[in-house]
Amino acid sequence: MATSHRLQSTALRYFLEVVRCGSISEAALRVNVAGSAVSRQIAGLEEALGLALFERRPRGMTLSPAGELLAEHARKSGADAERIAASMQALQGLGSGHVRIASSEGFALQFLPTLIDAFLARHRGVTVHLGVAAPAEVTQRVRQAACDIGVVFSYSRVGYTDVKVAHRQPAPGMAVMRSSHPLAQLKQVTLAQLQGHPMALPGTDTTLRQLFDIACIKQRVSVDTVFTSNYVGALLRFVRLRDAVTLASEISVHGLLAEEGLSAVPIRDRTFSGRDIEVQMRPERSHPELVRVFRDF
Asked: 60-63 and 262-266: which strand pairing?
């Protein structure tokens, strides 16, 4: 068992697993114990607190108000345990340890795997986990201390008191098409120039699509959307097959353009350019040394 697990009570660990899974039976499978053992720990917590922690519903268990408070405490407790364990390992150097990263899909295509590979080559014995989710979910994982570092695209500077932006830089969107497309020869394109060309667009839960829709409304531009997907790989494959145009950030596709036979052209629009890359962390001053080293890598 990991050192950090031994620093956190069994009851709280089982409780958090039920929160994540929404059921005792699935939580028991994940922690490799009998369901009755998880039930006993939850019942013991409820008895000690004198409050119900879950609302039992046909589709699963959801947190009660008291459960929400305990979940927040348990997550912080788990994060503290992770930091203590990592700091103890740091006393032996950076030869071991674990970094948990969450990012939106654009960073997971090439940028982060390449960065992680270079980091691990320098710090052998270290392990890294990369979880991919929508931007809002990534930020939520940072807030809940379910990851050490979150990497997202963001167009809003309205933040959370429990999230620190450790790094921010502009990330304008690009129009991506195969290299033989008529627009591929231009130095930049306007939204109006995209009219008349079939579009393959990312899902509406992405910051890129949200900004694109806002920009089109402001410019009174209507595009011909023939294909949508929440998977960047499918969008890139689609535009390779026909004269369609998709949207991407340069950091997401930079290394893929040549090998996929694609070109990326900047879109000239102030609204569409109003997006940043954010590296998010919790605001604690005592992040493990390994996490700080990866952040600054």
From this structure: unpaired
Claim to verify: residue 7 and residue 82 sit in the same structural domain: yes
Residues 101 and 152 in one domain: yes
Residue type, position 23, single letter:
S
From CA 137, how far away is CA 133, in angstroms rounded?
Answer: 6
**What CATH number does residue 250 fall under?**
3.40.190.290
Euclidean distance between CA atoms 167 and 295, whole angstroms: 9
52: containing domain:
1-92
**Nearest alpha-carbon partner for 247 in 173, 170, 172:** 173
User: What CATH code is carried by the domain that includes residue 295?
Assistant: 3.40.190.10
Q: Which residues pair with 234 in a beta bridge?
A: none
Judge contact between 173 and 208, C-beta under 8 A: yes
Q: Single out the residue of 13, 80, 99, 23 nearest to residue 57, CA to CA.
A: 23
What tokens appear for 241 in the block?
A: 């097959």
The number of distinct structural domains making up the chain is: 3
Q: Please say if the pLDDT value at position 291 is more than 70.
A: yes
Alpha-helix runs per DSSP H in 50-92: 65-90
Is the pTM higher than 0.85? no
Residue keyed to tokens 């109006």: 192
Residues 120 and 262 grouped into a single domain: no
Provide the token pair at 185: 């020869």
d(CA 184, CA 180): 7
| Whether residue 107 is found in the same domain as residue 140 | yes
Could you tell me the CA-to-CA distances from 84 to 13, 91, 102, 128 in Å, in that order? 16, 11, 21, 18
Digit-coded pLDDT (tens) for 85-107: 666 555 455 556 789 999 998 89
